[in-house]
Design brief:
The complex is a heterodimer of chains A (413) and B (448). Chain A is an alpha+beta fold. Helices cover 45% and strands 20% of the residues of chain A. In chain A, the strands form two sheets. In chain A, strands 1-2-6-3-5-4 form a six-stranded mixed β-sheet, sandwiched between helices. In chain A, strands 7-11-8-10-9 form a five-stranded mixed β-sheet, sandwiched between helices. The termini of chain A are far apart. Helices cover 41% and strands 19% of the residues of chain B. In chain B, 49% of the residues are buried. Chain B has 448 residues and is of the alpha+beta class. The chains are: A alpha+beta (413), B alpha+beta (448). Chains A and B meet through helix 2, helix 4, helix 10, strand 9 and helix 12 of A and helix 2, strand 5, strand 6, helix 5 and helix 11 of B.
Chain lengths: 413, 448
């Protein structure tokens, strides 16, 4: 593995994984400015498939499919991420189309795309879980771009003009940090030449985040969404947490493992599912972004169980804040978290995404090894301190259920 | 080793051939070599909703949950805790033709993780005790005073969860109308009434009937030397004198003679629909592959006919989402078209899909589409060879649903040999518009 600097200063991590049939490339392009209208960056990500100066949308689609090139452009909280994957023999064709869409997208079809996005999001909002999740994000990241949900985008997407799109895209293309990670059975010399040939006309810049900052949650917030035909209540309870840059990042990973990030042996799973039979899905999630993160617990349960579930959450959160975890549980959590991290790098694409992400954040592509060493050193006291520090702050609770179950006595425990 | 048959299979995109062993009792063991730090161990059982009836529908899936509730040697939770504390992913899944249990675990620097995983996995497969206090007593769904909630309630919550998913609702509506008699007509998860009442004895009896050596394939994927671990696997999987299950044979239903439309309503904003057709048996690899190709051309990717003709090109498209897919089942697969659309345009939506289908079997496809479909299918196979769990699942599918892994050797050759005429004829035979079952889920305000 090596770091190669393209002629324009963009850093590329290049790694050869022998005997793998497909090459994977992940490219990160930073977002430094807030959207002037909700959905601009999302519509940009979708319009990049919709035509360049020399190719129509159909021609791009045919080119990709004929060559079995997977192209995925994602709008994330802090960046646009392009994932490109192809059979080894087609890497040059894949980089040609990547160059074309980055440099020459016309964004002509924006009105049509806006209608398509509205349709897709309306369809998403027929899911009770997505409605509740959007409501939760809206409240935990109040008035911040991290909290923009599907409904806000549906409401504003028709107000977006072509000029808005081009201005925002140029800002990303010309004034933001970019980096690349490419992994596969590749000839390193040839790949360097190809990257320079196809991507060195791009401008690189340092990330200067001009977006609004996350607003602290001052008071406990309970938001309810009525859905009369819901068979299950959807409950999200979350807190603002620090970003990946935090010194506490490793202890939060362990906190999340112990509470319920994955698997069948976490505390929430054992208590709320296995012992109380309240749910099929119950878990915890920690999402770190550049400005900050959040940590939430989730359960889908019969509506009459709302109170029992919230009490169950409170009990487990309180326990991890006040009772020191045993050495055995700590060691199990460390081995669990460290072992699971191997899955994040099992395929060329998952490895490219992870290493590219660390580079984008400025942590360096070797951050994974450093993180594992940090996890190994975390103590039970540190986990309890981290839990106290963040869970003691006001929470946001978002509950979706039929109206008759959204009573004060069920929600305020 | 004595009395064990060995077969070697050339598996595309893997470094070494796959080794398949069959023991005298019928238990199959498969090894696939994949370099890397992870190992996948799974056991596939030839039972699912295919072996269920109206009385016990959902029992295969319920048993899958209960298999994690301990053995004579290990209490409930020990299996999960021991393996997850070493970074493993542990889970199981139930479908129409099979139930499978898997562990994917970091190999570690010694054989300990592999040996311990194998020991625990085999123990779980062979000696589930299903304690009363874990399954919970049968109960009345209308009784509001139930306080002790056990695994029955977890499965009932899973059923509730699925009721809130529009795609699952429209799929279930379609599925039960695609068949008249075949057990495939039932929802794999069953219903609350059955799960709340089914007894521990019934579940154990079902286990004894179907979890037999001839019904089980154990698959190991990773950096493993088969000769070293085969004796260990045979030792761990000691079925003793367990009687083999009789092989069930069901006649698949005949396709509908005319288009059948079924409709349901929900509190939603958009319309959901699915077209469904009956396909060939999974072991008819050539026809199944042609149907995969047809689905790819019709509705997978942005260059597909559905996407281009029904979303991209119309000025005001009716569809928000439209795609097609082919599902392989032992007794006969399904061709599906899934669409989400503007509800006020329901009739037009159905007619537009029908027109695209008709065009396929009257005009066929062109060389460019055929070439694209071949390349994408091969790339898809390469993609499914990237992780130990995907390789394990692919092998499990062939061993369990198609009954032999040899088909995998032919797959690339079969793709290469498919012609334009094959596509046209197969479309005519299986996707004739008069044989379609169409399920539609509409917003409640459209209820007449």
């Amino acid at each position: 593995m090596e770091k190669y600097i393209l002629k324009n200063g963009i850093e590329a991590i290049i790694k050869r994984n022998k005997n793998t049939p497909r090459i994977a490339l992940a490219m990160y392009m930073g977002i430094n400015k807030d959207e002037t209208k909700s959905g601009i960056y999302y519509i940009i990500s979708q319009l990049m498939y919709q035509g360049t100066k020399t190719k129509t949308a159909e021609e791009i689609a045919v080119y990709l499919d004929e060559n079995a090139i997977d192209l995925c452009i994602e709008k994330k909280a802090d960046y646009l991420r392009i994932k490109l994957q192809c059979l080894n023999e087609d890497i040059e064709k894949a980089l040609e189309i990547l160059e074309d869409i980055i440099q020459n997208s016309t964004f002509e079809a924006y009105k049509k795309e806006a209608e398509k996005i509205k349709g897709e999001f309306l369809s998403d909002l027929d899911s009770a879980k997505i409605i509740a999740q959007d409501d939760y994000y809206r409240h935990i990241f109040q008035n911040h771009s991290y909290g923009t949900g599907r409904q806000e985008i549906i409401n504003e997407i028709n107000l977006i003009t072509k000029e808005d799109i081009i201005n925002s895209y140029n800002e990303v293309k010309d004034n933001s940090k970019k980096n690349i990670c490419i992994i596969g059975d590749i000839d390193e010399t040839k790949i360097k030449q190809l990257l320079d040939k196809h991507l060195s006309d791009l401008k690189n810049a340092k990330t200067k985040d001009e977006r609004k900052k996350i607003i602290p949650i001052e008071n406990k917030t309970i938001s309810t969404v009525e859905k009369e035909d819901a068979n299950q209540a959807q409950i999200f309870q979350g807190w603002l947490f620090p970003s990946i840059y935090s010194e506490e990042y490793a202890s939060i990973i362990l906190l999340n493992t112990i509470l319920g990030s994955s698997g069948l042996s976490s505390r929430l799973f054992l208590e709320l599912r296995e012992k109380q039979g309240l749910a099929y899905t119950v878990r915890s999630v920690y999402e770190p972004c550049m400005q900050g993160g959040h940590f939430f617990v989730y359960i889908g349960t019969e509506p009459k169980n709302i109170k029992t579930s919230i009490i169950g959450f409170d009990k487990e959160i309180n326990k991890i804040m006040t009772e020191i975890i045993s050495n055995e549980e700590l060691e199990n959590a460390k081995n669990n978290a460290i072992g699971k991290r191997q899955f994040y790098q099992e395929t060329n694409m998952s490895e490219a995404v992870l290493k590219g992400y660390y580079e984008f954040l400025g942590l360096g592509y070797t951050f994974e090894e450093e993180l594992i060493e940090k996890i190994k050193k975390i103590t039970a006291e540190e986990i309890m301190q981290t839990a106290k520090k963040y869970f003691d702050k006001p929470a946001v609770i978002s509950v979706l259920a039929p109206k008759k179950y959204l009573t004060e006595s069920a929600l305020i425990c | 080793m004595k009395n064990i048959k060995k077969n070697i299979i050339e598996y595309p995109y893997l470094e070494k051939p796959v080794e398949v062993y069959e023991r005298e009792n019928g238990h199959k063991i498969v090894f696939a070599y994949k370099k890397g730090g992870l190992i996948n161990i799974s056991s596939w059982v030839k039972t699912g909703s295919i072996n269920e009836n109206d009385i016990n529908n959902g029992i295969s899936h319920f048993l899958e949950h209960l298999m994690f509730k301990g053995t004579s040697k290990h209490k409930a939770g020990e299996f999960d805790r021991t393996l997850e504390s070493r970074g493993a992913i542990v889970n199981a899944a139930t479908w129409k033709d099979y139930t499978f249990y898997y562990v994917t675990i970091p190999k570690g620097s010694s054989d300990k993780n592999f040996n311990d995983t194998l020991n625990l996995h085999a123990d779980m497969m062979l000696d589930p005790v299903i304690p009363d206090n874990e399954i919970g007593a049968p109960f009345d769904l209308n009784d509001p005073h139930i306080t002790t909630k056990r695994e029955r309630h977890v499965v009932i919550e899973e059923i509730r969860m699925r009721k809130d998913q529009p795609w699952t609702k429209v799929y279930n509506l379609l599925n039960k109308n695609l068949y008249k008699n075949h057990p495939y007509k039932r929802d794999v998860i069953g219903n609350e009434q059955i799960i709340s009442q089914i007894s521990r004895e019934t579940v154990l009896e079902y286990y004894k009937t179907h979890y037999t050596p001839n019904n089980i394939t154990t698959i190991i994927v990773g950096e493993i030397e088969p000769a070293q671990v085969l004796p260990l696997i045979c030792e761990e999987f000691d079925f003793k004198e367990r009687t083999n299950a009789p092989q069930t044979i069901y006649e698949i239903d005949k396709p509908e003679n005319e288009t059948k439309v079924v409709e349901d309503y929900s509190k939603i904003n958009t319309g959901f629909l699915m077209f469904g057709y009956l396909g060939p048996k999974a072991c008819d690899i050539k026809t199944s592959t042609i149907l995969e190709m047809i689905c790819l051309i019709l509705g997978q990717g942005q260059s597909s006919r559905f996407y281009q003709e029904l979303i991209e090109k119309p000025k005001n498209p009716i569809f928000n989402i439209i795609s097609s897919d082919y599902y392989h089942f032992r007794d006969g697969g399904n061709i599906f078209i899934d669409a989400n659309f503007k509800p006020e345009k329901k009739e037009e939506a159905i007619e537009q899909i029908k027109a695209q289908i008709k065009k396929l079997y009257t005009e066929g496809i062109n060389e460019q589409e055929l070439k694209k479909a071949k390349k994408k299918l091969k790339a898809g196979f390469a993609e499914n060879s990237e992780t130990v769990s995907d390789i394990g699942e692919n092998i499990g599918f062939y061993m369990t649903v198609c009954n032999k892994l040899e088909y995998v050797e032919e797959y690339i050759k079969v793709i290469d040999e498919i012609t334009l005429e094959d596509i046209k004829q197969t479309a005519k035979e299986f996707i004739d518009i008069n044989h379609a079952v169409i399920a539609v889920l509409m917003p409640e305000e459209y209820k007449k």
